[in-house]
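Exercise 3.2. Students should predict the tertiary structure of the chain below and write it as structure tokens, then compare their answer with the key that follows.

Predict this chain's 3D structure.
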Amino acid sequence: MARARETPVQINLNLSLPRDESTVTVARHVVRVSLCEIGVTEDCVADIEVALSEASTNVLRHSGPGDAYEVSCEMNDASCIIRVIDAGRGFDHASLGFGEADGTAEQGRGIQLMRSLVDSVRFESIPEDGTIVHLEKGLEFTERSLVARSRR
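Answer key:
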């Protein structure tokens, strides 16, 4: 009997959060639990968590006033795509994070760190309209994960 092809994993999360730095932890937790449940490796989960924290913190600190921000996350059996969306004033992202940050600096390393942890970091920023930080990372799964079992 031929084994039926299983439906690929597809999880879509949309969070609308108050514009408060304490909510970064909420977004991290929801994304972490979802990634762990489908069997993503701990190192891969940690990379995504840190990149999400940096993206969220940058948007909250640099995009200007507003009541809320959004985090959307799409996970499937290959990748995780995160968008951190803020309707603030936007910020000049073109020159951020390409050079070497001062290793002793308290700030200024976030974008460089994101670029080292995920496969793709993109910014959309429209002055007076807001900023979207896009993060994308290919997922690695444990041998016992739902995805690994469905590939056998």
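Discussion points: Helices lie at 23-37, 42-62, 110-117, 146-151. Residues 42-62 form the longest helix (21 residues).
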